[in-house]
């Protein structure tokens, strides 16, 4: 699985959009970008994933650059409850020779400020 | 609450003792994973089951560690002769075979004195 690089920490004002970057310059053509987050003292929570098109769900939007070497997770209106460590993970999807396991880095600690 | 439960939530033990953790996945999920997380690090993969078959084990899973999923439902992770380096959060996750999302439990925090 490809390695990802994320900033160790970011701040965001409550109510504003939080934009979390991730670099994955060695991503392969069959690898997806996944985002999970981990709120303090809880297990990780799935947020969103995508291959090359931008994706949106009720939690967030995922913007993947055309060359797929980087992506941005966008929380459109951050709240205090969004304070968490956000992990960007690159892996092959189920059915594509997936390894099944998730390989986490150290993630980005997003602190939403009141 | 994701529907994945783990027991106990906290365990304090003395070095050299054996401990066993339990994970109850979401009932229809046939895949079950164990991860370990130390302070300031992301979770690290330990092992993975599809139904009752253990299909992958990390090199992190030394001979002192054993995991089972006897009937393809709940799973147990046993650590024998615990060491201080085993102190960590042990996380369980489950998923369907056809879905990419893994659902994590709240974890069991192990402290070895």
Description of the molecule:
The complex is a heterodimer of chains A (114) and B (113). With 114 residues, chain A is mostly beta strands. In chain A, 0% of the residues lie in helices and 46% in strands. Chain A has no helices and nine strands. In chain A, strands 1-9-8-3-4 form a five-stranded mixed β-sheet, with no helix packed on it. In chain A, a hairpin with a 4-residue loop joins strand 5 and strand 6. The model of chain A has no long low-confidence stretch (mean pLDDT 92). Chain B has no helices and eleven strands. In chain B, strands 2, 4, 5, 6, 9, 10 and 11 form a seven-stranded mixed β-sheet that branches. Chain B has a four-stranded antiparallel β-sheet with strand order 1-3-8-7, with no helix packed on it. Chain B is globular and about 40 Å long. Chain B starts with a strand and ends with a strand. At the A-B interface, strand 4 of A face strand 4, strand 5 and strand 10 of B.
Summarize the structure.
With 114 residues, chain A is an all-beta fold. Chain A has strands at 9-13, 18-23, 31-38, 45-50, 55-56, 61-64, 70-75, 84-92, 108-113.
Strand tally of chain A? 9
Quaternary status of these chains?
A: heterodimer
Runs of chain A with pLDDT <50, length 5+?
none
Largest sheet of chain B: 7 strands, mixed
Strand content of chain A: over 45%
How many DSSP E strands of chain B?
A: 11
Radius of gyration of chain B: 13 Å
Helical content class of chain B: under 10%
Largest sheet of chain A: 5 strands, mixed
For the largest interface, the chains and their residue counts are:
A-B, 23 and 28 residues
* Spatial sequence of strands, sheet with the most strands of chain A: 1-9-8-3-4
* Mean pLDDT across residues of chain A: 92
Approximately how much beta-strand content do the residues of chain B carry?
Answer: over 45%
The total count of helices of chain B amounts to 0
Distance between the termini of chain B: 30 Å
What letter string, H or E per element, gives the SSE order of chain A? Answer: EEEEEEEEE
Summed up, the helix count of chain A is 0
Summing up helix and strand content along with how strands pair, one would put the structural category of chain B as: mainly beta
- Listing every helix as H and every strand as E from the N terminus to the C terminus, the arrangement of chain B reads EEEEEEEEEEE
Radius of gyration of chain A: 13 Å
* Secondary-structure-derived class of chain A: mainly beta
